[in-house]
Structures are given as structure tokens and as C-alpha cells.
Amino acid sequence: MEKSVTNIFKQLFYQALRIRLVEEHIIDLYPSDVIQSPVHLSIGQEAVAVGACQTLTSQDLLFSTYRSHAFYLAKGGNLKEMFAELYGKVTGCARGKAGSMHLAAPDVGFMGASAVVASTIPHAVGAALAAKRLKKNQIIVGVFGDGATEEGVYHESLNFAALHRLPVIFLCENNGLAVHSSRQARQNFEIIEHAGSYGLKTFHISEGYDFVKVADAMSEVIRHVRTTHTPAFVEVQTFRYKEHVGPGDDFSCGYRNISEFHNWKDLDPLMQYPNLVESFRPRIVEEIEEAIQFAKGSAFPSIEELLCDVV
After folding, report:
1. What number of H helices and E strands is found in the chain?
2. Single pTM value for the model
3. pLDDT in tens, the chain (311 residues)
4. Does residue 162 lie in a domain region?
5. CA 11 – CA 179 distance, rounded (Å)
């Protein structure tokens, strides 16, 4: 028997389910080769994106990793333009030239993703420096995985943001993996303790499957940064269900234990409320099908598009 739920729970549930169903449709489409780029799926991690974006405004900016579908949609990116981009069509959010790993929707404050690990972290810091100098009441969020904390630019960015007291939130999606390497095999430090050594205000969210708890915690973080105009660091424990890149399962590779997957699914709200799923599914699926038809009916970029927007 399902527990009673609040309106905010239903709202976040709908957003998370929408992301999951979008990516499940991507899985179905991928073998047909209509999707013109590799895909890094966020299935299992949706709660982080919807919780993080709940309190942000369209004026607040978010820079994402290449596992970007969830944050693109949670921040308000257009679904039709996303599918068109995956199809490589000119009506895509980057006119068909960027693909899954480089989505962007600056009109709603989603400032783009990059296939290069940790590369958007300094972009977020630069945007926060600009916001401070221009005296904008603006929060900047830089999203990255635990693997990015081993990159030099990550350390430089934390130091610079703390030194110059910039309104930036460093948001670490810690799923414990960098491709196939566990965090324990890569790191001899605790991520959040290390971030705190720079003088950053730190927050830890252990229940990254719970979008309400993520939203509540992020609301507190955003309020802190907006009030103090100083940076903060958030580590969220999460779990990706699918392989690092692609639509498949990879438990046969032996680098992680399938029992962890089942433990996470047992806590996953999208698995615990089947009646709510079925009540929302038709509306979401209809939207997805419309987006797919939009992508199918759109043209590929012409040769004249090749050097457009190239600086």
C-alpha cells in the first residue's frame, strides 16, 4: 500500500519520472542508430537534478557534466529541442552539432555541458565572478562527478572561489565511480573534508535517491549562498543504474556489485509508487512521442551550418 504524498512530492516525482521515461525511450531508440551521439544516462540519479533545480530561478545558472539529460530537463530545457539535438537535427538546442554530451539551454539558465571531465567547473566559477562584479543577485551551480575531484582545475576552482568569495555552489554527484574505477581505488581523501579545507561551507546529502530531501537541503544551500554571497560545496551520494556510456547494463563486467543496485532500487521512490507512476505516465509519454515526432520531422543541418557559431 502506497503512503500518502504531499503536493511537493508529487511535483518532484513527476519531474523525476519524466526524466526517467525520456531516458528509457532513448534506450529503446538507441539500437536503431537514429541518435547521432553517445549517451550518458542519468537513470538512478534523477533525484539530484530535480532536487537541486527546485529552488533555482531561470536567472540562476547551472553548468553540467556530459551526463546532462536530467539537469537539462530539470532546469527547464525544451524536450523537443533535446530530442532534435540527439537526432542531429537543425531544430536541436545546438542546431544538431553538439549531441547528448553538449546540451545547452541558456534561456533557462542551463549553460551547457562538456565531454571533458571537470571542464565546466571553472566556467561556473568564472560566471560567479562575473555575477559578483556585475552585482547580480545570481547563484551559479557547477555540477560534477566524484571523478572530477582528481583534476587540477577542480582544486584551483575551489581555491579561487573561496579566496574571492564567489556565489557558486559546487555540486558533486558522488556515484562512487569514474567509468569502471571505484572511488576507493582512486582517492586517498574524503571529498567533503578536502573541500572544507578551502574554507568552503560544506553540506552532505546521503539520501540522494530522495528528491524531497535533496530539494530541502539544496534550498538551504541556495539560501546560504544568496544571503552570504559566498561559495558552498555539496556532496550527494547517488547511484547510476546503467553503464558509464550507452544504454546497457554492465554488472557482468565485475567492477560493481549488483546487490548495491538492488539496495538502491528498494529506496527509489520511482520504484515504490507504481500507482503514481501509472497516473503520470500517459501525459509524459504523450509529450515524449510529440518530441520524437518533432525530431523525426526536422531537417538535418545544411552544409552552410558547418561553420556557423564557430569563433
Report:
1. 12, 8
2. 0.96
3. 355 579 999 999 999 999 999 999 999 999 999 998 999 999 999 999 999 999 999 999 999 999 999 999 999 999 999 999 999 999 999 999 999 999 999 999 999 899 999 999 999 999 999 999 999 999 999 999 999 999 999 999 999 999 999 999 999 999 999 999 999 999 999 999 999 999 999 999 999 999 999 999 999 999 999 999 999 999 999 999 999 999 999 999 999 989 999 999 999 999 999 999 999 999 999 999 999 999 999 999 999 888 888 77
4. yes
5. 32
- Domain span at residue 70 reads 7-298
Residue type, 218: M
CATH of the domain at 137: 3.40.50.970
48/254 Cα distance (integer angstroms): 26
Distance CA 142, CA 93 (A): 20
In order, the DSSP letters of 21-73 are HHHHHHHHHGGGT-S-S-----TT-HHHHHHHHSS--TTSEEEEES--HHHHH
How many structural domains are present in the chain?
1
Are 171 and 141 spatial neighbours (Cβ–Cβ below 8 Å)?
A: yes
